[in-house]
Amino acid sequence: KEVTEEPVQEDQEDDEQDRPRKLRRCSSLKSGKTPPGTPGRKKGVRFADVLGLDLAAVRTFLDEVPKVPTSAYSDLVFDDIFTKDTSPSLYGSSPTTTSPVLAGLGNIVRPDRMLVPMFQQPGGRPEFMDLVRDRQVCLENVIIHDPITLCLRGTVRVRNLDFHKSVHIRYSRDSWHTFSDLQALYVDGSCDGFSDKFSFSLYCHTLKIGDKLELAVRFQCKGTQFWDNNAGSNYCFQCLPMTMTTGYVPITVAGSSPSHDWQPAFY
């Protein structure tokens, strides 16, 4: 009986093809190990002074307004929002003069008048929150935001009696013979549970030296009005010349006296 031997070579070739091939590292990848016998490169540290250079660079900054050349902004076209302001003024209009920010780029505008508060800022008093609790409304502070346009900015604190409420600033420049009302705006996120804050802006550019501005605050809530007039004295600002360096004497309100019932003083 004859026995035929099957070729084994083809089976071995098939096994080699099925076997996974080993991945070889690309020659461009750096090895993490340095082969033994590789000559090392010594690193040296040299300081700048050895090379004749300074060890530290010193820059001096001057605390002054930088001088901007006219050519830097001569070709710019400014929108009306930068040259005009729509905030209320004493006569219902805003000043049409150039914004102080833009004016500062050219010649420096020096004001010839200043507004001097004739009262202590209520917000700085330790019993301020007690005043809010007793009066339901109290002026917190009012400052001269812009000495060029005589812009006043202030804040008012009121009791959080109800969600619906409104705050108005009543002001006069002729001892309440005439007056106007300005609505204050609610300051977002100012509610602390007990009180809310409102803010306002008022341009007083029409005031002349010797004039006096008087303010009072009206708070309306749940059909009731509450007033803060600085305990009957009103919040007064006196317009004085900027050249004055000495003390000043407050101008008293003609025919007025501190009173709790002060509303008729407006008429």
TrEMBL record:
<dbReference type="InterPro" id="IPR005036">
    <property type="entry name" value="CBM21_dom"/>
</dbReference>
<dbReference type="Pfam" id="PF03370">
    <property type="entry name" value="CBM_21"/>
</dbReference>
<feature type="region of interest" description="Disordered">
    <location>
        <begin position="1"/>
        <end position="44"/>
    </location>
</feature>
<feature type="compositionally biased region" description="Acidic residues">
    <location>
        <begin position="1"/>
        <end position="17"/>
    </location>
</feature>
<protein>
    <recommendedName>
        <fullName>CBM21 domain-containing protein</fullName>
    </recommendedName>
</protein>
<dbReference type="GO" id="GO:0000164">
    <property type="term" value="C:protein phosphatase type 1 complex"/>
</dbReference>
<feature type="domain" description="CBM21">
    <location>
        <begin position="129"/>
        <end position="238"/>
    </location>
</feature>
<dbReference type="GO" id="GO:0008157">
    <property type="term" value="F:protein phosphatase 1 binding"/>
</dbReference>
<dbReference type="GO" id="GO:0005979">
    <property type="term" value="P:regulation of glycogen biosynthetic process"/>
</dbReference>
<dbReference type="InterPro" id="IPR050782">
    <property type="entry name" value="PP1_regulatory_subunit_3"/>
</dbReference>
<dbReference type="GO" id="GO:2001069">
    <property type="term" value="F:glycogen binding"/>
</dbReference>
<dbReference type="InterPro" id="IPR038175">
    <property type="entry name" value="CBM21_dom_sf"/>
</dbReference>
